[in-house]
From TrEMBL:
Classification via Pfam families: ABC_tran, BPD_transp_2
Cellular localisation: Cell membrane
UniProtKB keywords: ATP-binding, Cell membrane, Membrane, Nucleotide-binding, Repeat, Transmembrane, Transmembrane helix, Transport
Topology of the protein relative to the lipid bilayer: Multi-pass membrane protein
Regions crossing the membrane: 533-551, 557-579, 591-608, 614-634, 684-705, 735-759, 765-784, 791-812, 818-835
PROSITE patterns: ABC_TRANSPORTER_1, ABC_TRANSPORTER_2
Organism: Kribbella pittospori
Listed GO MF terms: ATP binding; ATP hydrolysis activity; transmembrane transporter activity
Protein name: ATP-binding cassette domain-containing protein
Domain of life: Bacteria
ABC transporter domain sequence ranges: 23-256, 266-506
InterPro entries: AAA+_ATPase (IPR003593), ABC_carbohydrate_import_ATPase (IPR050107), ABC_transp_permease (IPR001851), ABC_transporter-like_ATP-bd (IPR003439), ABC_transporter-like_CS (IPR017871), P-loop_NTPase (IPR027417)
Length: 847
């Protein structure tokens, strides 16, 4: 199709009667590091239409929709919604305007529950408050066929369930404009059908839909009009009924594609197999057997979630299995498979790529032994080999040193493939190798897989696209509930026979796809064990047992004086640790809390002394609070605007505050007034009032963390900042405010520390940095961000002080204090990493 003959978007007669476009993008330009992603692109989407957006990976589709949804700011161009120009579109503003997007890579927060993900993403006006709120959440999940429990951690869901959750959040907002970016890629047949019904229903109510896909069959089934982008330029817009597939393909790739699939192998039936799999059994598959001759590609088909991914992981040596696998007559052990196989996972972001590394580093990782003598890498050889592999796969990247995150999804997949080929594997295993990949890149991947197979390396491909398996594979095994229900070869390899074999074996009340997803979800007992409050219960039990043991050895342990002293120590550490919890929850850390507490004590020693009026005392307290807030603001600003890491930013503040303390007082001085110390140490019976305040504030913060927008935002940023930003969370404001809160809690701790010291000492307070981190980790807060509790932190602080106190009553040396603390934090970190790691592993298997 000649691009100059593309049907115009509107005719003169249509203009008078057409309603205002829901979305108008005009003259959009966007560049990244001098690489143009969009150049003078315009798009109009009308109410009540499905407007398909096509193009190769890297054509600019997702970037354009990022502009439309407010996650990407254009360098130039205008955006109008219902005829009104929007000067600055942010994700939050887009939500207010009725724009919802389902991203190709779901914007979900793995450490939060399904219910909390919905609460973060869906504005309150779309969810009823009170007892009906959870019912409304359950209803929106049921609407899209998501079987996840509201209390499941999203990180434990399968890719398909994450996509359905993403779709449910978008549909709940009753959008004027719904953007769907590759929505069917991970879904099974039933889920795809439900999605199409939802799209048709929304369109019938006047919603405008932008549908990004690489599947022309979906365009034919759903879309009214289609726009094609290529290399960041608009290549044409047409009415779907008036353009052929060949014309669309020519527009997409800029050339005619004569063959999508390479020619299949023509071999002799009595050839000896190069691969023999016999009686292979493992997690969710059993007794799988097949053979492959040289040049054959083996396909693995079946309804999503019937053991296909688990089978490939076992063949790659990633998961344990029983049975045998033989290549060229040599039986390979589990360890040998792990070393000699190349595995292309379905989820390239979670399992396939190191997103913080460059294209070169990602490609070279599996072939380091080929890149130089002994254990050293020859940089010249590395660049030569990686460059040749990247060029051979036509990876579109500015340079080999470009971060892999800067590449489109299809080019990222090519990097995974390049790494696999560079390692010279004995067997190549590809799970959904073309998921989210454009038609041009698909043809290249098919060609490469065929060439690898022709070279004598066995190739096994699992795909939910039966048409893909039909065109690519020489043999196909169909799995149902982990068993082989059909083995097809030659002319038998057809889409119809694969689908029939899978469907006839899974005719149950619920589809196998739903059953598989339900099996992946955590049962009730596991949800409880993986919850944030398990460390709280464990700490409480440990403290009770330890207290009982100490009391059995020394009855003076529960004397009122000791109880008061312990609670005062817990109060000082507890307030500082509560602040540290906020920092760690955002996936940061604040090393400056100890010196800040000491600095505030020194400042207070100039105002809270004998002879000063009440006004001076109040001014001193205000100054201390203001200086604390300023320190937090500096930390937050260095991290967000100065681009410092949290460690570097707070370490710089640590040094500065310590210096200021010694500038103000080079030695202890400034006796604190007895009135001030008595006020802070006021007790109710043996319980200090400060401890009561600490407990009240702890529970208040816990309520904020679980039920209010501030707490959800803090955890969202720590769980996945980019997803949080896409969901409309103001990430910079959240982080900066969080560090101010950290410092204000440190101010409260400094007040108690001041009363305990009774003097301004510049050398005091430093120890609270590491001790506060220890208390937070003991309480179950993740060092990776997103998860934790304030109640756990309070108990963590209590346990540390209790241990310090125990050494005195048990007659132990101070060495034991450090040994106890070190042992506890190591045990806590190991237990937490195992729990979280098992969740991640379950997630990976689900993928």
């Amino acid at each position: 199709m000649n691009e100059t003959k593309v049907a115009p978007e509107t005719t003169a007669d249509d203009t008078a009667t057409a309603t205002r476009p829901t979305l108008s993008l005009h003259g959009i330009y966007k560049s990244y590091d001098a690489v143009a992603a969009l150049t003078d692109v315009s798009l109009e989407v009308k109410p009540g239409e499905v407007h398909a957006l096509l193009g190769e990976n890297g054509a600019g589709k997702s970037t354009l929709m990022g502009v439309a949804s407010g996650t990407t700011t254009p360098d130039q161009g205008s955006i109008a919604v219902l005829g009104e120009t929007v000067d600055e579109l942010t994700p939050g503003r887009a939500s207010e305007l009725g724009i919802a997007i389902v991203h190709q890579h779901p914007a979900v927060l793995p450490d939060l529950t399904v219910a909390e993900n919905i609460a973060v993403a869906v504005p309150g006006r779309f969810l009823d408050d009170g007892p009906d709120r959870r019912a409304a959440m359950r209803a929106l999940l049921d609407r899209v066929g998501c079987v996840a429990h509201l209390e499941d951690r999203v990180g434990h869901l399968s890719i398909a369930q994450k996509h359905l959750l993403e779709l449910g959040k978008a549909m709940a907002m009753e959008p004027r404009l719904l953007i769907l970016d590759e929505p069917t890629a991970p879904l099974g047949k039933e889920s795809v059908g439900r999605l199409f019904d939802l799209v048709r229903s929304a369109v019938g109510q006047g919603t405008a839909v932008v549908y990004i896909t690489h599947r022309l069959a979906e365009v034919r089934e759903l879309a009214d009009r289609v726009t094609v982008l290529r290399d960041g330029h608009h290549r044409g817009t047409a009415v779907v009924a008036e353009v052929t597939d060949d014309e669309l393909l020519a527009m997409i790739v800029g050339r005619q594609l004569e063959y999508t699939f390479p020619a299949k192998r023509l071999g002799v039936d009595d050839e000896q197999p190069v691969l023999t799999v016999d009686g292979l059994s493992g997690d969710r598959f059993s007794d799988v057997s097949f053979t492959a001759r040289r040049g054959e590609i083996i396909g693995v088909a079946g309804v999503v979630g019937n053991g296909q991914s688990e089978l490939l992981r076992a063949l790659a040596g990633l998961d344990g299995h029983d049975g045998t696998l033989t290549i060229d007559g040599a039986r390979l052990s589990h360890r040998q498979l792990l070393r000699s196989s190349a595995y292309l996972p379905a989820d390239r972001h979670q399992e396939g790529l190191m997103m913080s590394l460059s294209v070169r580093e990602n490609t070279a990782l599996s072939a380091l032994d080929r890149l130089g003598p002994s254990r050293f890498v020859n940089r010249r050889r590395e660049v030569e080999l990686v460059g040749a592999e990247v060029a051979g796969l036509a990876v579109k990247t500015a340079t080999l040193e470009s971060p892999v995150t800067s590449l489109s999804g299809g080019n990222q997949q090519k990097v995974v493939l390049a790494r696999s080929l560079l390692s010279k594997p004995a067997i190549l295993l590809a799970d959904e190798p073309t998921q989210g990949v454009d038609v041009g890149a698909r043809a290249e991947i098919y060609r490469i897989l065929r060439e690898v197979s022709d070279s004598g390396v066995p190739v096994i491909v699992a795909s939910s696209d039966a048409k893909e398996l039909e065109g690519l594979c020489d043999q196909v095994i169909v799995l149902s509930r982990g068993h082989v229900v059909a083995s097809l070869a030659g002319a038998e390899v057809t889409e119809e026979r694969m689908v029939r074999a899978a469907v006839e074996s899974t005719t149950h009340t619920r589809t196998e796809e739903q059953r598989a997803d339900r099996r992946r979800l955590s049962p009730r007992w596991r949800r409880k064990l993986e919850g944030d409050y398990v460390p709280v219960l464990i700490l409480a039990a440990v403290m009770l047992c330890l207290g009982a043991y100490i009391y059995s050895r020394n009855e003076r342990y529960l004397l009122p004086f000791n109880v008061t002293s312990v609670m005062l120590l817990v109060s000082a550490l507890g307030f500082i640790a509560l602040g540290q919890t906020v920092a760690l929850m955002t996936a940061g850390i604040d090393l400056s809390v100890g010196p800040l507490a000491g600095f505030l004590v020194v400042v207070g020693s100039f105002f809270l002394t004998e002879g000063h009026s009440g006004t001076a005392v109040v001014l001193g307290l205000i100054l201390m609070a203001a200086l604390a807030a300023l320190a937090g603001l500096v930390n937050g600003s260095l991290i967000r605007f100065g681009k410092f890491t949290p460690v570097a930013a707070t370490l710089a503040t640590y040094i500065a505050l310590q210096g200021f303390s010694f500038l103000l007082r080079d030695k202890p001085g400034g006796l604190i007034s007895r009135t001030a110390t008595d006020l802070v140490t006021t007790t109710i019976g043996p319980v200090p009032l400060a401890f009561v305040v600490l407990v009240v504030i702890t529970f208040a913060m816990e309520v904020l963390l679980r039920t209010r927008r501030w707490g959800l935002n803090i955890r969202a940023v720590g769980s996945d900042e980019e997803s949080a930003r896409r969901l409309g969370v103001r990430t910079t404001r959240t982080v900066v405010t969080g560090y101010v809160v950290v410092s204000l809690f440190t101010f409260l701790g400094a007040l108690i520390l001041l009363s305990q010291l009774g003097i301004g000492d510049p050398a005091q307070g430093i120890g609270y940095t590491l001790t506060s981190i220890t208390a937070v980790v003991l309480g179950g807060t993740s060092l990776l961000g997103g998860r934790g509790t304030f109640v756990g932190t309070l108990l963590g602080a209590g346990l540390i002080v209790q241990l310090l106190n125990a050494t005195t009553f048990l007659g132990l040396t101070q060495t034991w204090q450090y040994l106890f603390q070190g042992a506890l934090i190591v045990i806590a970190a190991l237990v937490y990493s195992q729990v979280r790691g098992s969740g991640r592993k379950a997630e990976g298997v689900a993928h």
